[in-house]
Amino acid sequence: MNTKIDKSYFKDKTYNITTFGCQMNEHDSERISFLLEQLGYRPTEDRESADFILFNTCLVRENAELKLFGQLGSLKKLKRENSEIILAVSGCMMQTTKARETVRDKYPEVDIVFGTKI
């Protein structure tokens, strides 16, 4: 099946990625950035103006979970004000049932959750 994506939809869209963790997470964030830019997204440092916000998480690094949940909490108001923003959480932390359930139960404004394994 050959499916074409209409990239014009993404032409004026921006993204912001925050990476918590190790060199592998940095590498994964770079790969995700590349894919988003292939669609037409542009990077932005201004998280509040981004159309797509991703937190790439690490299970190993100390306090990464607390940092993530603090950041997600601060975006609740932003998502209420603009429901079109896409919020995503990825990385090895999302491989754990506990972290996925916490995101699902306490942060319903998160649109996408995915781990490192497919």
Structure overview:
The chain has 118 residues and is α/β, with parallel strands linked by helices. The protein contains three helices and five strands; from the N terminus they run βαββαβαβ. The chain has helices at residues 23-39, 64-81, 97-106; strands at 14-19, 42-43, 52-57, 86-91, 112-114. The chain has a five-stranded parallel sheet, with helices on both faces. The protein starts with 13 loop residues before the first strand and ends with a strand. The model has no long low-confidence stretch (mean pLDDT 89).
Summary, kept brief:
The protein has 118 residues and is α/β, with parallel strands linked by helices. The protein has helices at residues 23-39, 64-81, 97-106, and strands spanning 14-19, 42-43, 52-57, 86-91, 112-114.
Contiguous uncertain segments of 5+ residues: none
* Global shape: globular
Biggest beta sheet attributes = 5 strands, parallel
Number of helices: 3
Topology:
Blueprint: E1 14-19, H1 23-39, E2 42-43, E3 52-57, H2 64-81, E4 86-91, H3 97-106, E5 112-114
Parallel strand pairs: 1-2, 1-3, 3-4, 4-5
Features of the shown structure:
about 120 residues, alpha/beta, five-stranded parallel sheet, 3 helices, 5 strands
